[in-house]
Specification:
Structural class: alpha+beta
CATH topology of the largest domain: Ribosomal Protein S7
CATH superfamily of the largest domain: Ribosomal protein S7/S5
Oligomer: single chain
Strand order of the largest sheet: 1-2
CATH architecture of the largest domain: Orthogonal Bundle
Number of strands: 4
Length: 178
């Protein structure tokens, strides 16, 4: 028994010590982009872009863990980059204002309201996906090419983008109902 303890102590004493800070490689998004270089211009969306060191991943994926609880998918790593053709983010394709129905005693009218940042991110993702799907339907272009075109056109805020077209509709209605 003493021999076993001595062997364990010797192994611990002579084990190569390596520093966690210096020996670990730097985590880069998709192996290309540094996480500190990501800038979010809209201050309300900062909490929903999980590119902090705490959530750093080599390849962002969810593995289905975010389906469990309500609003737990806030921490899903969001990365939409199209650096070869444009340098801005296509998440500007969701409206900031919307309108809702407010009723009292059988009378219903529309009232303009501000949209929560998390809903704006979800709506932008949904509109980009729907636009890519509709563009690829009965088209010779693949879904990947259509999605890339949607992302680039959304970043440029092109008026022929599906998401930008749909963004303008609720904002117009909300502006009318002020």
């Amino acid at each position: 028994q003493l021999v076993d303890e001595w062997a364990v102590n010797e192994a611990v004493d002579f084990a190569p010590a390596f520093e966690l800070e210096g020996d670990l490689p730097e985590v880069k998004l998709f192996g290309k982009w540094n996480l500190q270089e990501v800038n979010v211009a809209d201050i309300s969306l900062v909490d929903y872009f999980t590119v902090k060191e705490k959530y750093a991943k080599y390849l962002p994926h969810s593995a289905g863990r975010y389906q469990v609880g309500k609003d737990i998918n806030i921490y899903v790593p969001i990365c939409i980059t199209t650096p070869c053709r444009c340098s801005s983010t296509p998440l500007s394709c969701r409206s900031r204002e919307d309108s809702t129905l407010i009723g009292r005693a059988g009378t219903v009218r529309r009232q303009s309201v501000y949209v929560a940042p998390f809903r704006r991110v979800n709506q932008a993702m949904w509109l980009l996906g729907t636009g890519a799907h509709e563009a690829a339907f009965r088209n010779i272009k693949t879904i990947a090419e259509c999605l890339a075109d949607e992302l680039i056109n959304a970043a440029k805020e092109s008026p022929n983008n599906y998401a930008i077209k749909k963004k303008d509709e609720p904002e117009r209605v909300a502006q009318f109902n002020v």
